[in-house]
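Hi, here's the filled form for the chain we discussed.

Project: internal
Contact: R.S.
Residues: 240
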Amino acid sequence: MTTPAQQIADVFVELSGGTAGTPLETPELLATLARCSPRLLGVRAAGAVGAADDRAEPQVAGSEDGVQMLKQEALKWREGPGTESRLSGRPLPGIAFDRPATRQRWPRYAPRALELGYSRAAAFPLRTAERSVGALVLLNSAADAPLSEEKAALAQSLADFTALILVRDHELHASRTLSSQLEYALNSRVIIEQAKGVLATRHGLTMDGAFALLRGHARAHRRLLSEVAHEVVEGGLDLV
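And the returned structure, exactly as it came back:
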């Protein structure tokens, strides 16, 4: 029989990419968080929103179809506990959607949540030491017991761990992209220098003169300088 401690450990392992250790893409990571949270935290449903890059549109996930749609609507309306927790970086431990103040606070989100059968919620930011990158929202009905301090602490730990995975994957992707760009730039520079040498030797030009010839041909024919240089080095193009 799986113990509660083992269940918690299994969820953290799954969020980190499983035993293979392969980082989850943002949609799959948020979906895993939303799917695992109800069983682990004893709530009816859960939703997650996140974006590692401030310039990117946040992505959402829900443990149920209705919650998934609610999270998408929350982004559009800029309402709800997830939106507020994500933007403020602060947890919202106890929310009642049937209270007048909450309806006034979120005039579209609160009635929609009640229509789906959820009258209580708690939200926890997906946060790193520097910023908040999303939120985990837990949903319950009025008949359910309030979220305990222990479960709230676990929910925040899950949210924080998810944030670290989300940011780590983003930074890894950015690093790989930069590395590829630098490698391409270096290879282009090498082939251009080789082409300059070929033209200088073949036609008795200075290196500056050879470069001017390369650049002029590329501009005149609307081609990349590196492509023209490659053809010169391969012997398929003579510019004089």
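Let me know if anything looks off before we file it.
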